[in-house]
UniProtKB/TrEMBL annotation, chain A:
Keyword Calcium in annotation: no
Chain's gene name: GPT
Source species taxonomy: Eukaryota, Metazoa, Chordata, Craniata, Vertebrata
A Pfam family: Aminotran_1_2
Signal peptide limits: none
Organism: Macaca mulatta
PANTHER family reported for this sequence: ALANINE AMINOTRANSFERASE (PTHR11751), ALANINE AMINOTRANSFERASE 1 (PTHR11751:SF308)
Protein name as annotated: Alanine aminotransferase 1
TrEMBL record, chain B:
Signal sequence residues: none
Residue stretches making up the Aminotransferase class I/classII large domain: 111-510
InterPro entries attached to this UniProt entry: ALAT1/2-like, Aminotransferase_I/II_large, PyrdxlP-dep_Trfase, PyrdxlP-dep_Trfase_major, PyrdxlP-dep_Trfase_small
Statement: the UniProt record of this protein carries the keyword Protein transport: no
Region (Disordered): 1-25
Catalytic activity line of the entry: L-alanine + 2-oxoglutarate = pyruvate + L-glutamate
Entry superkingdom: Eukaryota
Any one Gene Ontology BP term: L-alanine catabolic process
Pathway entry: Amino-acid degradation; L-alanine degradation via transaminase pathway; pyruvate from L-alanine: step 1/1
Full protein name: alanine transaminase
Subunit structure, as described in the record: Homodimer.
Enzyme superclass (EC): transferase
């Protein structure tokens, strides 16, 4: 029965019942949640796809989903070795098949040995299979030049999102002006704002500096913090590095400054590092928060509370659908760590195939392994193509008048700024839409290209952006970028 | 205050944060020994401590993986290190994980999954055509034809269609709409999400959620975390754990004093109790929910696990529909299923779905929005669910082997259910209701007064004390009844029926011997 809220009162008058669960009676926090990456514009994209399938004529033949960081959906191939090992784990009969390389079989056997009943189908320990957590710890050590990582501080999760939500959940306490405040970057990946809304925590925005390639300024952190102290109790600081949607890769100096700031101001640090394998720009390098923290020595190294997150969804793997990820916690109170484990135990365990995939990501073929050559080639090819697409995107957008795009140093997105004529802004307001949503909807209707308006990520007042992935194949991407630029020019003309 | 009251009503022993602390202290000590951090001269207080953390999270308990299981883990480590014990292995009879206890996965299911995971295998002659057909169908429906893409947040479309078709067949033609199907990360995810949306209000208008006692402690944990009000209704132990509507009435009346009861949760077949509700009972419950305007949650993950020849699974959806339009158009219902139980036992895949009935369209929109923040359930779990609802049919190549494997698993479980019930009932001081379905025994145990006193001296619930002793002396890990809820002054434990038959017999004998000794010791 399709009764809108308005119809409900009519329904009551007609003798029909009101529902138990309505917009009015539901959890008000859930009502406030928004997640633009799969929000209204994507729903419209779905409708358009539906119409295309039904044969409705459009100015385009396909909808391009450039809204979400899903590489394989846009044609990127999975890494062969990963899928071979996983297939062997799923169906161990294949261990006798000649079609699989020996090193893949060895890996599969190793993983299965560590599973209950030697099967991916058993629940694992709630923090994840011990062996895999050990492999993750070793990966972290190698990555960080030998700085030790303790497997007991590693918790596998259902994608990084799961662990981020869990850590934030632990942090939320207090009421009114003692309610937990969490500093998040603007622009941000909207998991953060959505989770804070759901938990009823206070979102504290700090602005990245668009004029300086989206740099993070400690003075801006100060400003945000001071402002926040009046109405909440700021307890955590979230950093996304490499950035989403902005793609900036923080310098080591910046990371040190952030750590010092967090320490001085007593903030729990969350470092979202899911794009650590996606660094393209020549001058940029990924520095893990963990490594920098440890290298800073006392008092920081032994006391600054930190949670760092990684995932199988990005990098060169693009295994979004498997929902693999982990969090490493540093300097977390032991009793709280037990509480975290307890919380995870209610949901039993992260998906075991995702755990297995993560294992392969953190311990890929070694140079002496038979699968190494193919693995390396595939990996390099994916990363090289992403780097080329990052450069291309920046280039094409910067050639378009009225569009400017900061360098895409890393991650998988461009977040260009677009000039929108005042008349377009007015029109948007008439329609009750954010101006960049209006722009993006029109773009979608006329070209089939689906991107997410900057208002979904946050931006300085009076500026407009959109986030577009760099994931379509290179030549297709070039066409899309040009199409989009042309549309923008046309749009600007129309509303001049 | 309200939580304390809820605890008293739950009939639990004293909350035992100390048992958490005690059994993990050695683990924590080990952890700090391993982590080589320079000791700081003057350590400042951490930002995140037990005092400063989320109090709702602190209140959460989940006995199935709680203190006794942590203790079991410690003992296993000791065994590994060669420490002598009265036993050579720890038997994990605490959790409904069939494959961990040796149950084999269904061949067809794993074949289709392997084909989806590594599509090169579609060219291999070692896979039957019907498996390949299913794999191709699933992959076609995935972004980039890969399990590695995110799916729609509601789940892969064709899988939702298959689920709807399954439900329609299962329910003798009562139609299911794919649009009302949401795939989830195990059933727990769906249950948690629905409860989250339902919880609102403050003080006396805070949402009350009715749950069975004994219950599967996901419910109490989620209610704690959401700061909702737990409203207990007691199943009738004297009557094979039957659900009595009069008891529902009592519970809801009492609850109205201090909260706004909005939700009624049913687990059928029951966990931990294993009872399979009669059709009449389900009708009565639906009528009650209709009368009291309660949102119904029907946890039906054990729908394939019915052993008693006198019992049959009746889905809430089907009964609701057959009760006519006044009910079927009005009662809001969410039903849950999973790949973890049944004959599949695919716990690690985290596959599941929920079917929602009569939800307001705006609420369905809110539901998708909430799910979208986590993007999508694991696609491999969705694929596993697809095979569960779309298994080989007569005439297909894999049908025979599939049927054999399925019957073998279910036959085995039925045998073990009877075996367990019979053996427990032979023990003086243990009484076990018939295991009509699910995967557990929840026998009542007599604990002598002296033992109750000893337990109190250790600051433990008496049945926790009993179970700890059982674990330490036999290596058998079961979960005390206080973790599920029980009537004040009664004691139980939940044990799975999952170990292989011969091993199960040994386990049951050991429990019997332990119990007799325990009675003597504390006489």
């Amino acid at each position: 029965m399709a009764l809108s809220t308005g119809d409900q009162s009519q329904a009551v008058r007609n003798g029909l019942r009101t529902k138990v669960l309505t917009l009015h009676s539901m959890n008000p926090r859930v009502r406030r949640v928004e997640y633009a990456v799969r929000g209204p514009i994507v729903q419209r994209a779905l409708e358009l796809e539906q119409e295309l399938r039904q044969g409705v004529k459009k100015p385009f033949t396909e909808v391009i989903r450039a809204n979400i960081g899903d590489a394989q959906a846009m044609g990127q191939r999975p890494i062969t070795f990963l899928r071979q090992v996983l297939a062997l784990c799923v169906n161990p009969d294949l261990l006798t098949s000649p079609s699989f390389p020996d090193d893949a079989k060895k890996r599969a056997e190793r993983i299965l040995q560590a599973c209950g009943g030697h099967s991916l189908g058993a629940y694992s320990v709630s923090s994840g299979i011990q062996l895999i957590r050990e492999d993750v710890a070793q990966y972290i050590e190698r990555r960080d030049g030998g700085i030790p990582a303790d497997p007991n501080n590693v918790f596998l999760s259902t994608g990084a999102s799961d662990a981020i939500v869990t850590v934030l959940k632990l942090l939320v306490a207090g009421e009114g002006h003692t309610r937990t405040g969490v500093l998040i970057p603007i622009p941000q990946y909207p998991l953060y704002s959505a989770t804070l809304a759901e938990l009823g925590a206070v979102q504290v925005d700090y602005y990245l500096d668009e004029e300086r390639a989206w740099a993070l300024d400690v003075s801006e952190l100060h400003r945000a913090l001071c402002q926040a102290r009046g109405h909440c109790h700021p307890r955590a600081l979230c950093v996304i590095n490499p950035g989403n949607p902005t793609g900036q890769v923080q310098t080591r100096e910046c990371i040190e400054a952030v750590i010092r700031f967090a320490f001085e101001e007593r903030l729990f640090l969350l470092a979202d590092e899911v794009y650590q394998d996606n660094v393209y720009a020549a001058g940029s390098q990924f520095h893990s928060f963990k490594k920098v923290l440890m290298e800073m020595g006392p008092p920081y190294a032994g006391q600054q509370e930190l949670a760092s997150f990684h995932s199988t969804s990005k990098g060169y793997m693009g295994e979004c659908g498997f929902r693999g990820g982990y969090v490493e916690v540093v300097n977390m109170d032991a009793a709280v760590q037990q509480q975290m484990l307890k919380l995870m135990s209610v949901r039993l365990c992260p998906p075991v195939p995702g755990q297995a995939l993560l294992d392969l990501v953190v311990s890929p073929p070694a140079p002496t392994d038979p699968s190494f050559a193919q693995f390396q080639a595939e990996r390099q090819a994916v990363l090289a193509e992403l780097a080329a697409k990052a450069k291309l995107t920046e280039q094409v957008f910067n050639e378009a008048p009225g569009i400017s795009c900061n360098p895409v140093q890393g991650a998988m997105y461009s977040f260009p700024r677009v000039q929108l004529p005042p008349r377009a802004v007015e029109r948007a307001q008439e329609l009750g839409l954010a101006p960049d949503m209006f722009f993006c909807l029109r773009l979608l209707e006329e070209t089939g290209i689906c991107v997410v308006p900057g208002s979904g990520f946050g931006q300085r007042e009076g500026t407009y952006h959109f986030r577009m992935t760099i994931l379509p194949p290179l030549e297709k991407l070039r066409l899309l970028l040009e199409k989009l630029s042309r549309f923008h020019a046309k749009f600007t003309l129309e509303y001049s | 205050m309200q939580r304390a009251a809820a605890l008293v009503r739950r009939g639990c022993g004293p909350r035992t944060p100390s048992s958490w602390g005690r059994s993990q202290s050695s683990a924590a000590a080990e952890a700090s020994a391993v982590l080589k951090v320079r000791p700081e001269r003057s350590r400042r207080e951490r930002i995140l401590t037990l005092e400063s953390m989320n109090p709702q999270v602190k209140a959460v308990e989940y006995a199935v993986r709680g203190p006794i299981v942590l203790k079991a883990g410690e003992i296993e480590l000791e065994l590994q290190r060669g420490i002598k014990k009265p036993f050579t292995e720890v038997i994990r009879a605490n959790i409904g994980d069939a494959q961990a206890m040796g149950q084999q996965p269904i061949t067809f299911l794993r074949q289709v999954m392997a084909l989806c995971t590594y599509p090169n295998l579609l060219d291999s002659p070692s896979f039957p055509e019907d498996a390949k057909k299913r794999a191709r169908r699933i992959l076609q429906a995935c972004g980039g034809h890969s399990l590695g893409s995110y799916s729609a947040s509601q789940g892969v479309n064709c899988i939702r269609e298959d689920v709807a078709a399954y439900i329609t067949r299962r329910d003798g033609g009562v139609p299911a709409d794919p649009d009302n199907i949401y795939l989830t990360t195990g059933a727990s995810d769906g249950i948690s999400t629905i409860l989250k949306i339902l919880v609102s209000g403050g003080g006396k208008s805070r949402t009350g959620v009715m749950i069975p006692i004994p219950q599967y402690p996901l419910y109490s944990a989620v209610i704690s975390e959401l700061d909702a009000i737990q409203v207990n209704y007691y199943l009738d132990e004297e009557n094979c754990w039957a659900l009595n509507v009069n008891e529902l009435r009592r519970a809801v009346q009492e609850a109205k004093d201090h909260c706004d009861p909005k939700v009624l949760c049913i687990i059928n077949p029951g966990n931990p109790t294993g009872q399979v509700q009669s059709r009449k009972c389900i009708e009565d419950v639906i009528h009650f929910a209709w009368e009291e305007k309660l949102f119904l949650l029907a946890d039906e993950v054990y729908q394939d696990n019915v052993y008693s020849p006198d019992c049959r699974f009746h889905s809430f959806k089907k009964v609701l529909y057959e009760m006519g339009p006044e009910y079927s158009s009005n009662v809001e219902l969410a039903s849950f299923h999973s790949t973890s139980k049944g004959y599949m036992g695919e716990c690690g895949y985290r596959g599941g779905y929920m079917e929602v009935i009569n939800l307001h369209p705006e609420i369905k929109g809110q539901l998708v929005k909430l799910l979208s923040v986590r993007l999508c359930p694991p696609v491999s779990g969705q694929a596993a669910m697809d095979i569960v609802v779309n298994p080989p049919v007569a005439g297909e190549e894999s049908f025979e082997q599939f049927s054999r494997e399925k019957e073998s698993v279910l036959g085995n479980l039925a045998k073990k259910a009877k075996l367990t019930e019979d053996l427990f009932n032979q023990v003086p001081g243990i009484h076990c209701n018939p295991l009509q379905g699910a995967m557990y025994a929840f026998p009542r145990i007599f604990i002598p007064v002296k033992a109750v006193e000893a337990a109190q001296a250790h600051q433990m619930a008496p049945d926790m004390f009993y179970c700890m002793k059982l674990l330490e002396e036999t290596g058998i890990c079961v979960v005390p009844g206080s973790g599920f809820g029980q009537r004040e002054g009664t004691y139980h434990f939940r044990m799975t029926i999952l170990p292989p038959v011969e091993k199960l017999k040994t386990v049951l004998q050991k429990v019997k011997d332990f119990h007799i000794n325990f009675l003597e010791k504390y006489a």
